[in-house]
Amino acid sequence: QPPFVESGGGSVQPGESLGLSCGTSISIFNRVTLAWFRQSPGKERELVASIARTGTTHYIDSVKGRFTISRDNAMNKIFLQMNNLRPEDTAVYFCAWQSLHDGLFKGWGQGTQVTVFS
Fold this sequence. Notes:
Layout: E1 5-7, E2 10-12, E3 18-23, E4 34-39, E5 46-51, E6 57-59, E7 67-72, E8 77-82, E9 91-98, E10 105-106, E11 112-116
Parallel strand pairs: 2-11
Antiparallel strand pairs: 1-3, 3-8, 4-5, 4-9, 5-6, 7-8, 9-10, 9-11
């Protein structure tokens, strides 16, 4: 399965917003859970938000109320709207899909850098 291609990262001031998007050509896009992860230098990759095929969403506590994940099954795209950004949100952001067979997340791309100045 091909990797995701992420875009939309950048450098912003605290309190500003960014919108990330991610596309792929996997054939089972509308059947799987999709997610955004992030990784900061020296830290493990963490799941930031996920969206099931039903539209049910999940967020880590630190981004609740600030980030919104969404998906467009017709376009095979996933989005992450990030508002009120904080310096601790600085990371490389990746999107992935969850395998129906083993539950692992796959489709790792190059990621997109988000930098929030402190």
